[in-house]
Amino acid sequence: VRAKAVEKNQISQEQAARMSDHEAVNLIFAAGLSTAQEVTNISGRGVGMDVVRTNIEKIGGTVDIVSQAGVGTTLRVKIPLTLAIIPALIVTSGDDRYAIPQVSLLELVRLEYKEGERAIEYIQGSPVYRLRGKLLPLVHLRKQLGFDDLKPPTPDGNNTIMEAGGQAKSTDSSEEEAEQAVNIVVLQAEGRQFGLIVERVQDTEEIVVKPLGKQIKSISAFAGTTIMGDGKVALILDVLGLAQQAHVVSRKGEQIPMDAVDSDTVGEDEREAVLLFKTTDDERMAMPLDVVDRLEEFPFEAIERAGALNVVQYRGEIMPLIEVSGQFTGASKSLNNGDGGGEDDPIHVVVFSMEGRSVGLRVGKILDVTEEDLSAKGQSGRDGVLFTTVIQGMVTEFIDTAAVVRRTIPVFTSGVN
Predict the structure, then answer these.
(1) DSSP state of 210
(2) pTM, whole model, 2 decimals?
């Protein structure tokens, strides 16, 4: 694949020499690249895998290939889970608020007054920041949205990153310094990290995702909309679309070559996507994302009783609801007793399938959807927990969904319909 890419002038000989085997294999997604010796009506034109990646990325998914000689090849396709509610970071630009899906968020960096002038450098006119020894490309949110009113570099020639908030206010020095601080939201798209410069970082919220209107559907920087608590609309940023628009990632999903690549990160095949949540007793737990069908909210009055079970009518079937907290306290909780919220508050439910039927786990709060290295596991200290591990710097219990269902609803595993 390397040889063909060089032969077709897709990459240079130097780039090919620096590429890892994983990067070289993924060159098959490049437009116009084929390893076939001859072009026929059905092969050799280099439009097959290119079309696959393009269409998967259109719906917000990713595709990746891992191959090992003598072992085999894994084609991994990730399609986004349709979530009614997602955790998001709220940022502002001008007088507008924007939501960034937390699944793409890595960390936040704030450069105080004067620090930004020294820390931000320019490579061929593009701003970068050295984050722990690696060059992080920077993207101005205002510039990408068409509000290109950033200050030019100072006349003394220093490498200066200007505030993303337009003109400074005529206030006292402390307020002026706060206005000139640089807020960098470190994001990841297609395995490539970049920093998004915003004016202010507010807080994380759980937002309800709504589709874009037809008037702005074609703008690649936006993925959807949401209605904030004050009734105003905020646009949800498309991280991949912003990265492509700023040329951090190419339109075909290929990473723009950069010498500073972090080789110490955990390999993708060693990571697992997990859903992170808290129970109504404020306990931190997780479960594999691939077993989750949907995240739902139900009004309190939708809960009914069927014998000893709490149930809710869901998509044409009667779905049992299990209170997660009651599985570990030794007492069976009722969903109708108002635990974890008042009757005016909706309940959060993780829906998954078992034995061909839907089951709902009532949780207190959805925290995040993230990919984690779960190789370091501790022993479980109680029934209903598979193991403990560290996720986002905190000890987290992995719930044993099968054990919880068997204990609560024995009919699911008894073979009785």
Answers:
(1) B
(2) 0.42
